[in-house]
Design brief:
Length: 300
């Protein structure tokens, strides 16, 4: 699929979930490079990359992945070698899901009841891996208004054989208390330099309630979702989606439809990356270790 079509599908949320957004964007740039016959690939890639980056503003995996393509294209002038490196990048991103599932599942204990919010492939894979290991877990997922991504999660977990209960978002406190939730497992759209987590709207409420009941919050997050821009002091834009997603306009009523919120690092126990488990406050070290290339680009 070409970059413009991919950008449209990201905008309309046909392509969604922070990791899938990033890998789809890179795959579209690979297709673009394969078909490119002009003599200014780098400039054209930058233009296509801008279209992709503008598709959705909050998940940093998208600009990180696009910037990485441009960084590679700048350094590698041999088209075949560049494509090889880009395909390797996509493969590694997909493999990171499995690595995170294996590491994260170790934090899940026998008979745990796990609550998850929205639809994160990373979080789901941790839960399914724990189930495959025979830990006899059960799960609860939230409906996730207004787009109801929780229904996708419920389907995926049920299809994998994990006993699953669906609750409305406002039943989270009731569920954590009455269903005796042992752990919360969520994904990430962005992790900031201070360890704050940006994920689907409502994640911060879930984490706050989990804290109240001493329930650990585990965040599954590929390192591509850490934000180098936040190291330079920039704030992450929270997407304000079409208010019609909530309901038809009401006269005299202002609607607000933020798609994501910020969970302070104090409410998160661990972040599970493909390289291992870190406390949220070690996010700075991840950025320093992994994003030297992007810091170079951002400072220019
Ligand atoms: C999805 C969402 C997910 C993260 C992580 O929001 O908030 O928790 O993107 O997903 P939306 P993954 O439905 O608005 O894209 O682990 O699949 O990358």
């Amino acid at each position: 699929m070409d970059p413009a079509t991919t950008a449209e599908k990201i905008k309309s949320m046909e392509i969604r979930g922070a990791l899938f957004i990033a890998t789809s964007a890179v795959e579209s740039l690979i297709e673009f490079i394969e078909g490119y016959e002009g003599d200014d690939l780098l400039e054209e890639l930058k233009r296509e990359g801008e279209i992709l980056k503008k598709a959705r503003p909050t998940a940093v995996s998208l600009p990180n992945a696009v910037n990485y393509c441009i960084y590679l294209a700048n350094a590698e002038k041999n088209r075949g070698e560049l494509l090889k490196k880009l395909r390797k990048f996509v493969k590694e991103q997909k493999e990171s899901l499995e690595k995170i599932a294996r590491i994260g599942a170790k934090r899940i204990e026998k008979n745990d009841c796990i609550l998850t919010h929205c639809n994160s492939q990373t979080a789901i894979d941790i839960i399914i891996e724990a189930h495959k290991q025979g830990k006899d877990i059960t799960s609860i997922c939230t409906e996730t208004r207004p787009r109801h991504q929780g229904y996708i999660t419920a389907r995926q977990l049920a299809d994998a054989g994990v006993p699953v209960t669906l609750v409305i978002d406002s039943a989270v406190r009731f569920a954590i208390r009455e269903e005796e939730v042992d752990k919360v497992v969520v994904g990430a759209d962005t992790v900031c330099a201070n360890g704050a987590l940006i994920n689907k709207i409502g994640t911060s409420q879930v984490a706050l309630i989990a804290k109240e009941f001493n329930v650990p919050v585990i965040c599954g997050c590929e390192t591509i979702k850490f934000s180098p821009e936040t190291l330079l002091g920039n704030l992450v834009e929270i997407e304000d989606r079409n208010h019609k997603e909530i309901r038809e306009p009401m006269e005299g009523v202002r609607m607000l439809n933020p798609a994501f919120d910020v969970t302070p690092p104090e409410y998160i126990d661990v972040i599970v990356t493909e390289d291992g488990i870190i406390p949220p406050h070690a996010s700075y070290d991840v950025l320093k270790d992994k994003f030297g290339w992007e810091m170079e680009m951002l400072k220019k």
